[in-house]
Amino acid sequence: MRFSRLAATSAALFSSAALANDPLTPAKLVADINEVELQRVLWALNKIAKDNGGTRAFGTPGYKASVDYVLERAQTRFGREMDTFVQPFTFVYDETLEIKVTGPDGEDVFVVSPQYNPATPLPGGITASLLNTPVDDTTGSMCLESQWDGIDATGKLVLIKRGVCAVADKLIFAKAKGALGVILYNQTPGTEITTPTLSADNIGKLIPVGIIPLEVATGWIGRLAAGEDLSATLLVDAIAEERETWNVISETKEGDPNKVIMLGAHLDSVLEGPGINDDGSGTAALLEIMGSVKKYKGFPHKIRFGWWAAEEAGLVGSYHYTQNLTPAEADKIKFYFNYDMIASPNPKYEISSYENSGIGVSLLEDYLTAAGKEVEYAEFDGRSDYAGFVELGIPTVGLFTGDGAPWDSCYHKACDDIDNINWEGYVLNTKAAANAVGILAHSLEGVPDRLVTTPNLRGRDKINYQFKRWAALAQEAGSHSLCSHGKKKSTV
Ligand SMILES: [Zn+2]
């Protein structure tokens, strides 16, 4: 008895000593990733959303609970191997609580509210005469000052056609011409009306708006043209207020602090749903990779994980992080991987990058093609958290399995839940991510230096210009990018 207990004790000592010095290899990280654990995390995130009104959006209790979930691992459970900090900041939280348009015959019509819609007076809203305005489908309707020549909208609700130019521009001119509100009608019939954003920058500059179906407006316009005086009511109850939110950053104690390999995913969802593919998938992948790397030693480069806040509000958390890095701190980040939506139910395997990505693309590509997947390539389009890293010239790649049909028809909807996952593709992508960080944790061969001198990548204006150009190209190509991701909502 005694002998066997001793034997057991020394065996335990031996194995824990061996573990303490167990060197990290890409193969070990890959082997540690498994479907059951990924499912466990996504199940937990799904439950967090369910328990908090169906969302994990920034500014809501569901987001706070998501932060706590990550901290429970990074800080509480892995505190011996990981250094973790929370980076707080504030941003405008926006939510339309109620929107209503009542037509000339007292009928309530289908209506959509854009993001950052200002409130009307309450509880009655605005009741006023309707004023129709000219349509210009080439340059956009009522977006140029000249299009408003001779129009007096004082005290009116103005009917304007949607499309081509930014909704906010239409509202700015309508306000200048004295309008109380705008009834925007969609370019195409039906109630499939996408939600544009008026953008947080315009808070305080706009008048309230409701977006109604084309056919409803067509009826009203016909009656106005026939000389009828029609009035309608627009009611918007909305909040826009600064709320505190938090990035979570956690890095291995192991590794050279001057040579950091970073992985990022956004921790928030949209208000409309639990965000399990977008981006519970990236969030859980990072948690599982962290749970693996923290078991090992003997890797020369530090591994850092970032869970970004308020991505869906316009990449706010990741920009907050990158813009607060000193040049010296930015220099230390040798590579950034972005994992945003890596488990779409009908996945494509799209690697996005820019010219400074070096070996990063092939690290992911080689792993996925070896597994028999066909890989697609895309240029960065500024719609996810890589943008701030690209701006700093840090070598960066992203992996993405597609949003909207045919890849993920629950994108940004309530049905982006635990059933909205392709597990086979997800496990593979997480293993590819683990493999890639495992390689770079040992060697930076093939990784270029941060681009600090290339003029077309310096400065936010230049990068934004580049992103706009990419977005315009995507739009011309008629791609799904219109229903965009990250900077998720179109301004048009
Ligand atoms: Zn996302």
From TrEMBL:
InterPro entries: M28_fam, PA_dom_sf, PA_domain, Peptidase_M28
UniProt domain PA: residue ranges: 139-214
UniProt GO MF annotations: metal ion binding; metalloexopeptidase activity
One Pfam match: Peptidase_M28
Record-annotated Peptidase M28 domain positions: 247-435
This protein's record includes keyword Lipid biosynthesis: no
Gene Ontology BP, a term: proteolysis
Entry keyword set: Hydrolase, Metal-binding, Protease, Signal, Zinc
Gene3D superfamilies: 3.50.30.30, Zn peptidases (3.40.630.10)
EC numbers on record: 3.4.-.-
Range of residues in the leader sequence: 1-20
Keyword Chaperone: no
Stated name of the protein: Peptide hydrolase
